[in-house]
Amino acid sequence: MSVEGLLREHGQPEREVYFDHENSGWVPPEVVEAMLPYFNRKGFGHPSITNKPGWEAYEAVWRVKEHLVKELNAGGPQNLVFTHSGTEANNLAVLGSAIASGRKGGKVIVSSVEHLSVIFPAEFAAKLLGMKVIKVPVDEEGFVDPEVLSAYMDKDTVLVSVQAVNHEIGTIQRVKELVKVVKENNPEALFHTDACDAFGRIKLDVKELGVDLLTLSSHKILGPKGVGVLYVKEGVKLEPVIRGQLSTQTLWPGVENVPAIVGFGKAMELAFKDFSNQVRRVKSLRDKLLNGLLNEVPETLLNGPKGDLRAPDNVNISFLYVEGEAVTVELSLKGIYASSGSACTSRILEPSHVLLAIGRKHEEAHGSILFKITRYHTDGDIDYALQVVPEAIKRLRSISSLKPSHPKQ
Amino acid sequence: MSSRIPLPYSPKVLKYFKNPKNLGPMENPTVEAMAGSPACGDMIRLYLRIADVGGEEVIKEATFESYGCAANIAAASVLTELIKGKTIKEAWKISWKEISDELGGLPPIKYHCSILAVGALKRAVRAYYGGKELPPWLPKELTAEERQTMEEEEMIERIYGRSPKMK
Hints:
The structure holds 2 protein chains of 2 kinds. By secondary structure, chain A is an alpha/beta fold. Chain A has helices at residues 4-10, 29-35, 37-40, 52-72, 86-100, 116-129, 146-152, 175-185, 206-209, 258-271, 275-296, 324-333, 353-357, 362-366, 379-399; strands spanning 17-18, 80-83, 107-111, 132-136, 157-161, 190-194, 213-217, 228-232, 300-302, 314-319, 336-337, 339-340, 368-372. The longest helix of chain A has 22 residues, at 275-296. Chain A starts with a helix and ends in a 10-residue tail after the last helix. Chain B has a 3-stranded antiparallel beta sheet with strand order 1-2-3. Chain B is of the alpha+beta class. Chain B has 6 helices and 3 strands.
């Protein structure tokens, strides 16, 4: 069904501030500029074909891999695989290692707050290979306790996957400690971390963390959609999960998305320019929005931790007595773009599994709104959000049949 | 966040969402009813003022409150518009499909919003006749909308019952 009429009815808000970088987002002009020549001026060839446009494409892909090696301390370009999304890289990590283990009836351990692109492949591996999937519980701020993880470890464990930063509630896991616990229990078990929401927010050094596999995604650092990366430590065996004509890499077939990879490289360059100052600024905007909303609006819950163990860009708040989908529509009408963990936006009419895993009740999860801050946001943007969001919640609460004045439902 | 679905609403949903008609609680309603639950994320409270007009029971006023998504708010609002001025007997015949059609056709995953609105209305009508003699047009058995409204409420009960953490 076309939504042309809906867009007309929606109209053009006077001011617009985009906070939905969790789901997708706009790309800085420098990134678009960097990509453009690769569509039709140079490097538009196939990076594994021996002609000039092919070699130019190869060179472009190689440069971005070298850049990544430096940012991640990844050893060498041969340890990096480009996929076409973070979802694909997570699938390669989880399914690829489960299949390569050659085990029937092994165990895959994931945290209960992982992205669905980790949880679903783990469940799929279980179905295909007769493996067991353990979803490790987290505490009320989303942290995996190393001791709890240790209790689930055994000699059958093939893979443990715990994300570096939670995509919804911003919990920064203690990955190094978790890796230590896993390797102490079973040196054969692989450790994968989905770092899509950590890259460009916290320092990532694969050697220092001790991980075997690590996932990145271009659009999570304001790069174009269509590029994912999997770091695969030297010696770690994976089975490719997509089959076809190989190009420059052995674990993912198909022609590399060269313009998008170049854009990702540019986005990375911008993300790491003056890194600590940028992060400090984003963090202060985060706290301004987070504290502003908690102070301005009564009956709210902060989802995820506060302070330094929270991702610098993440604000996730449950507004009680209102439903999140209605909130996103109301905010959109005023030009504030955010998303919700409500059931109403999901295929299965179940709220976000992350919010349920930290112990939120259904009605608390339904009222959750997620904002992500970037270095492009200004104080004025946050002020605008602090004006619009409380008004939106007030109007929807005035409509709501669920409020303190109705003690019994 | 969770597994998502596109929601191609018709412009009418947004229109009613922006300016809901017949909003708010009613002082001394003849009858009120509720459908859905906070846990479902969908809940409609309906208030009716019913008066005898020339021997017919007519819905003089209908208002609502809604905890739910944009479609839920729009469905409840449209329902109140449709039943105002109708006899109870006429209002009883309104189906969830009419509400959905009135909103330009809801996306299938949002059908339950119009089912919930009609469910609330049917509950209000039954409450109105509670303890009185039932008129011949009012079936003793629950209608499809009433059954489905109950099923949705019960499903959430079961989910809550299963997981002690969420109590």
